Amino acid sequence: MTEAVPVHIDGVELTLRANENLLDACQRSAIELPFSCRAGSCHTCLLRCTEGVVPAQAQRGLRPSLRSLGYLLACQCRPTGAMTLTRPSQADMVTSCQLLTSAGTDASFRFMQFETARLLTCQPGQRLLLVTDAEPAPLIEVTATCPETHMVDALMHCPPGGIFPSWLDAADAFGHEFEVRGPVDGAGDGLAGKADVPVESPAPAPDPALWTELDGGATVRAVLEDFYGQVYEDPLLAPFFQKVTRDRSIDKQYSFLKQLMTGERVYFGDRPRNAHHWMVISNELFDYRQALMVRTLEKHGLTALQIARWTRLELHYRRDIVKSAAWPRHVNGVDLPLDGYANETLSAGTLCDHCGAVIDAGTLVKYHVRLGHISCPGCASGGPQALASSHGACDAAA
Ligand code: HEM
Ligand code: FES
User: Fold this and answer.
1) Residue 194: inside a domain, yes or no?
2) Residues ≥6 apart with Cβ < 8 Å to 216
C-alpha cells in the first residue's frame, strides 16, 4: 500500500500507515483483536469485510465458504482501498470434531458425544449444522458441554424426509471425523432488557416414545418429586419458590412435561415466558438448575440418550427464561404493566394480603398490578390502622 486508506472496524475509523497490516494497525490503535501466530497460520485474527475489496493474500488458507463471505486474516491484510470490517459471526464458523459415542435407534434422534478440535463457544440448547453435501443438513442440538475437555453431548435430528449420515451407525464410528458449523442460533444471553421482550418460543417437537419409555409418566413424577424436594432446599433456587407450594410446582411441571413429550394438550398454566417474567435468571443459574436436573435423572436410572432427550425439551426454553431484567407479562398481544398499583371495587369479599383483615364485597381496594396483592383501605392509607371491621393483625397493632 502506498497511500493511507481508511478502514472502519466496529464503527471506529483507522487510517493505516504505509505497509502496515490490519492487525498492526489495530494494536497501534488499541482495538482489541485476538491473535497468536501473526503469520496466517492460526486463523485467530479473523475479521469479515462487509464493504471494500479484500486482497487475495489476506484470504490464503481460508476455506472457500469463509472466503465467499468476505472473511480475511487481519495479520495478512494490507488494504488496497477503503474497507468496512466486522467481527466473525459464530454462525459462519466451522469446527472439526471427532465422534466418541453414538446411540439410539429412534427414527428422529441420535444421541452423540464428540470432542471438538477447538473450544466451541456454545451453550446447551444451541444448535449446530453438520457440514455435509446432503440437503437439508442434519441439525445437532447441544445438550451439555465441558469447556475443559472440549467434550459435547448432543442430539442429532434427522432432517424431514432425510436420513442420518451412514457413519453415525457404523460399527467403526468411534473416532470418525466430521465438521459442524455454528452455533446457528442465539441462546438467551441474559442481556434482554425490559424493552427487548422476546416472542414466546413455539413448543419443541414432541417425543411420545420418551413418555412411554418413562412408564407413561410414573418415572416423570418420581423424578419431579425428588427434583423439587432438592429445589426447595437449595440456597440459590429456593428463594424463587417462596410463594408456591412444592405440590403445585410438581403438578404444573408434570403436566407441562407431559404436554411437551406427548404433544397432547394437557397443560393449562402459564407458558414459561410469562411464568418466569419477573424472575431475573442468569445463564449460570439456568445451567445450575439443569445440572441438578441431570443428576436427578441419572439417580432415577435414565440412560444418557433419555437424559439428552428430556434436557432438549427444557433447554428449548432458555430464551424465554434467562434475562437480566424482569419483563412484563404478555397476554393477548398486550404487555401488562410490570409495576404500580390500580384500584378495584371488590365483587366478592376477601382478606387483606398485608394485615389479614376481612374486606367486604363492594370495598374499593388497591392492588399491585404484578403481584396481585390487595391492600385494605387501612393498609393502603399508609397508616397503622386496618379496616374498622377487620379481625386481622393490624387490629392487634392499632
Ligand atoms: C433457574 C431456573 C428456573 C427457576 C428459578 C424457575 C422458577 C420457577 C418458579 C418460582 C415457578 C412458579 C411460578 C408461579 O407459580 O408463580 C416456576 C414455574 C414454572 N416453570 Fe420454572 N424455573 C426455572 C426453570 C424452568 C425451566 C427450564 C422450565 C422449562 C422446562 C420451567 C418451566 C416452568 C413451568 C411450566 C412453570 C409453571 C407455570 C405456572 O405456574 O403456570 N422452569 N418456575
Ligand atoms: S494471528 Fe494467526 S493468522 Fe493472524
Assistant:
1) no
2) none
